[in-house]
Amino acid sequence: MLLPGGAVLLVLFVAVATLAVPLFRGRLLRLAEVRFRGTWLLGLALGMQLWILTIAPGPRTPAREAAYVATYVLAIGFLFLNRRIPGFWLVGMGAVMNLAAIAANGGVMPAAEHALARANLPLEVPRFFTNSMPVEHPRLAFLGDIFAVPASWPFSNVFSAGDVCIALGAALAIHRISGSHLLPSGAGQFVGLLRERSYRRLWAAQGISNLGDWVYALAVAATLSDRVGGPQLATSLSILLIAQVAPAAVFGVLFAGPLVDRRSRRGLMIWADVLRAVAVGSLLVSPAPSPGHFYAVAAALGLFGAAFQPSLMASIPNVVPRDRVVAANALVAATYHLAVMAGPALGAFLVGALDPRPVFGLNAASFVLSAALIVGTRLPRPARPDAEAAPLRDLREGMRYILVTPLVRGVLVVTGIVMLAAATKAPLEPLFVRDVLTPQGDFADRARVLGMITTAWGLGMLLGSVGAPALARRWHREHLLPASIAVVGLAVLAVSRTTDFQTVLLAWLVAGAANSVGNVSYESLLQERTPDAFRGRVFAASEAVLDGSYLAGAFLAGMLGVWLGASGAFLVSGVILLSAAILARAVLPAPRRPRPVPAPAQGAT
Predict the structure, then answer these.
(1) How far, in Å, CA of 602 to CA of 178, rounded?
(2) Which end of the chain, N or C, is less surrounded by CB atoms within 10 Å?
(3) What are the residues facing 147 on neighbouring strands?
(4) What is 164-232 written as a DSSP string?
(5) Residue 253 pLDDT > 90, yes or no?
(6) Per-residue pLDDT averaged across 444-457, rounded?
(7) 25: three-class secondary structure by DSSP
(8) Phi/psi of residue 603, each to 5°?
(9) pLDDT class for 341, splitting at 50, 70, 90?
(10) Which tens digits make up the pLDDT trace of 96-115?
């Protein structure tokens, strides 16, 4: 009953996952050996839901709503007590996502009209309290029941992104416990990572500053939209983007890379955070910062971020064992995607409840907290003393290394093409929503749909991040990278040829997961195959290539949107991505090591 609108679907999914265990050489008897803690919490939660929804149904009242929310709290408590069981972390994440949507909507799960219509369910509000129903002005609608099993299929119903996590987590738990060979194992790599003190501090620092950045981005957009009206708003936002990305690309490749390899990476990250805190804090000096002030702050964030990010990525192999580099990158990526999903929503709440100025202060404070965490890290000194510093020589050495190293050269070319395609697609999503998915809808409808498809991509990115270490144990990263790019390309092509909202949601979920696996794969390849003395310059060059490709793709998107429309531009983006996948398979060198052997299936992720 912990799957709003789809308890039967969960039961069926779990049943199919269980029946598949023997097919993949697992032993079902191992499931009987699992010992759960706090089973009374789950029993009480299920009993309360059964009473509220079935035995004693009644109208929607505050008492019923509070009791229903309480069932989720009890169930999450049970999952927390059993968090070491493989897959339960994913079930718990789904339960938390559902709880957030239910609590935000007064004790019920908001169901999207398009999903109810596709499942042929009533669109009117029911007389009796039910766990999923249409809500007139839903909050966190992207976490509600936005997916549907069509009415033409058996057991048609609606379900949420949280339900997807619950179902996948349950299947993961069943196959891992039973020793099935269906799903590769991460062998507890995330748990082991958090025992590494320096990595733990770096991970927390970037997570806090990323969340602050996305909250800040919403506050800036809201401030500019309030002061700059009409077509000028799009121009202002474009200038803001260029002001941050363009200087970062130039500074990163010419100056930041040699600095990262020559000076203390810890010191560079600390100073970058402090200077970014000062830049954002300067917005508090004036009661009404001008657009020019925002552009200047954006340029400062880009410049100092161009020193921080290569320092962080170059430092990860210094603070974790070699066999956990992939997991370390995946955990950093997962927290980044959580910030992308939660930051704008949190920013909207804070701007509405407080004011943009306190939000600017919070972002400045996040940089200060990040710097304080990094102070406690231990990183090795540069390979060469600073007395030997020769900036131009260091730059030439770095460029020469990149050009003559097939793997590094190939990764940078391929990721640049991928970013070009991604930047061609991303700016046109609002146009695609308006012209293709909601041609008759109003502004509120378009905003909800855009939020839903963005959430589907973000959820896929999150799932891909946490699944990357397990996949990397079974397949070489040189093979994972082109495969993941191809999956994204096929998903974008599918979306370019459809007007069905459900197809877009599922395609973006798959594409997001593949995109995240590809990101973790290329970052790990560069970290593992690049000597420490060159790693800063390589990652600075990588960031510069991505920034340049993003700007080029954004300009290309404007032209393609006018010439071909959103669907046509998506078609071009998909073709570019598939071409990049073919190129990656051709230019990346063959893996050096033997094919990895999957870890024992009993290990927890």
Answers:
(1) 7
(2) N
(3) 159
(4) HHHHHHHHHHHHHHTT-SSS---TTHHHHHTT-HHHHHHHHHHHHHHHHHHHHHHHHHHHHHHHS-THH
(5) no
(6) 76
(7) coil
(8) -65, 145
(9) confident
(10) 888 888 888 888 888 888 78
> Strand 147-148 vs strand 158-159: parallel, antiparallel, or unpaired?
antiparallel
**What is the C-alpha to C-alpha distance for residues 502 and 314, in angstroms, rounded to an integer?**
40
Q: Report d(CA 598, CA 595) in Å as an integer.
A: 10
Residue with tokens 């009661």: 287
Tokens of 246: 């363009």
Secondary structure, 3-state, 336-364: HHHHHHHHHHHHHHHHHHCCHHHHHHHHH
- Collapse the DSSP code of 6 into the 3-class scheme (helix H, G, I; strand E, B; otherwise coil) and give the result: coil
The kind and range of the H/E element at 132 are strand 132-133
Can you say whether residue 179 is alpha, beta or left, with left for phi > 0 and alpha for psi between -120 and 50 degrees? left
Extract the tokens encoding 452.
């839903």
| CA pair distance 160, 452, nearest whole angstrom | 10
Distance CA 190, CA 195 (A): 9
Q: Which two tokens stand for residue 267?
A: 């010191």
Token code pair at residue 202:
């770096």
Give yes or no for a contact between 413 and 588, defined as CB atoms under 8 angstroms apart: no
- Give Cα 354 distance to the centre of its chain: 27
* Whole-number pLDDT of residue 103: 87
Range in 108-112, 184-188, 517-521 with the lowest mean pLDDT:
184-188
Q: Give the span between the Cα atoms of 316 and 313, in whole angstroms.
A: 6
